[in-house]
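User: Can you predict the 3D structure of Copper resistance D family protein? Sequence below.
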Amino acid sequence: MRTPFTTPGSTELAMDVLTAGQYLGLLVFAGLVFFQVAVLREPRLPRRLQGLLRGAALVAVLSSILLVPASALRVVGAEAWSVVSPRSWLPAVLPAPGAAAVLVTAAVSVVCLVLTRRVGHVGQGISLLCATLAVTAPVLVGHTQSVEPQWAMILADVGHLLAAAFWAGGLAGLALYLPAIGPRPGHDADPLHAVGVTVRFSTFALVSTLLLAVSGTVMAVLIVETPQNLVGTGYGRALLVKLGVIAVVIALAAWNRHNLLRRIVPRPTVSMRWRALHRVLVVEASLLVAAVVITGILTNSSPGHSH
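Assistant: Sure. Here are the predicted C-alpha cells for Copper resistance D family protein:
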C-alpha cells in the first residue's frame, strides 16, 4: 500500500529488485522440492540440484530479510542508502515483512536440512509442508491485504504461487537433470527414464497450468476491477504482459511434450533430441524469470495508478 510520502527512486528500485529476488528464490526453491517429491521420486535430491536449491534458498532468505528495512524506508520516504542509519527507519518497520522474513528463513532452513539427506516419506512430507509455507509467505504483504473480498484474494494468491513454483522449480530441475542423464562419451543414456521424468512433469504441469489460469483470472478481476483499468493503467498493462509471457511458456511446454518427447523414444541414440529438449527448457525457464520480475513490479505498484 502506498504511503503519503513520495517514494524516492532508489528505494522504489530496491523494493522492485528485492521483491523480484524474493519471488524468484522462493519459486525455484519450492518448485525444486515439488519436483523432487512428485517428479523425480528419489530418496535424495541429486547433487547437481542441491546447489541450485541452496542458491535459491540464499536469494529467498536474503531478499526477504532486506525487504524489512526497504519497506520501512519506503514508509518514511527515505533514500535506499539511508539503510545505514537504522534510527531513521527502525520506528517504521512493518510487522508483515518481518513475519514473512521469519517464516521464509525458518521454513527454508528446515527444507535444506531435510532434503539434502536421504529421507523417507515423512521427511518428504515435512519438506513439502515447509516449502509450501515458504513460497506462500509473500501473501502476508502486497495486494492481498487491501483487496476485497480478502479471503478470495488470499486463496487465489496462494494457488497462483504454488502453481508458479511448480513451473519454475520443475523447469529449472529438468534443465539441470536431463543433461546429466543424457548421452555423452563413455556413458549409455537411458532415454526411457528421461521420458518418464519429463512426462510426469508434464502431467503435473497441466494441473498447475489450470490452477495458474483460474487463480490468475480471479486475481485480475479482483485487482483490476474494470476492463478500462486493464489497458488504462500501468498495472493493467504490466499484467497483460505477464499473462502474455506465461502463455508463451505454456505453448512451448505443449510443443515440448507433443513433438519432442515422442521422437526420443523411437530414436534414443540421437543426441540432438536431448539438446533440443534442453534448449526448450532453458527458454521456458528464461521466460518464467521474466514473468517473476514483472510479478515483483506488480506487487509494488498501485492497481489504480494510471500513467
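The mean pLDDT is 78. The chain has one domain: 9-299.
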